[in-house]
Write a structure and sequence with these properties.
The chain is mainly alpha-helical. The chain contains four helices and two strands, in the order ααββαα.
């Protein structure tokens, strides 16, 4: 449980989707955009995600997919870690892409409005 949310009741199409949904519940949008996966290293510029909540995440993944701690370690190293790092990178880029799309839309709107003004003037 996290706050009033049962983490085992969260739906996901596969382990990657489930993991992303759990991380979105456990962490704020800002934390996902500014952090890296634990354990963090001192030479890295970004701080790691909160270890207590990340432990909740790993426990939820283990229980949901019925993995022992040994099997989860292999699962995490070989499959899950790559999906999670890609997810954090996408979270960082999401706002940048949204702003770029909005600026392109506004530029297109401005140019189409000026074209219409030229036609009728």
């Amino acid at each position: 449980m996290h706050d009033s949310t049962d983490l085992l009741g969260v739906l996901g199409t596969d382990y990657g989707d489930y993991a992303r949904n759990i991380l979105r519940i456990l962490y704020t949008k800002e934390e996902l955009q500014t952090s890296i996966l634990p354990p963090g290293r001192t030479h890295l510029s970004r701080k790691p995600l909160d270890k207590v909540r990340f432990k909740k995440f790993t426990d939820a993944m283990r229980y949901k997919f019925k993995l022992t701690s040994v099997n989860f370690g292999q699962f995490y190293r070989t499959l899950l870690r790559r999906k999670l790092t890609d997810f954090l990178i996408e979270e960082r880029r999401r706002d940048e892409l949204k702003l770029a799309r909005q600026s392109l839309k506004s530029q297109a709107k401005d140019t189409s409005q000026s074209d219409i003004d030229e036609i009728f003037n």
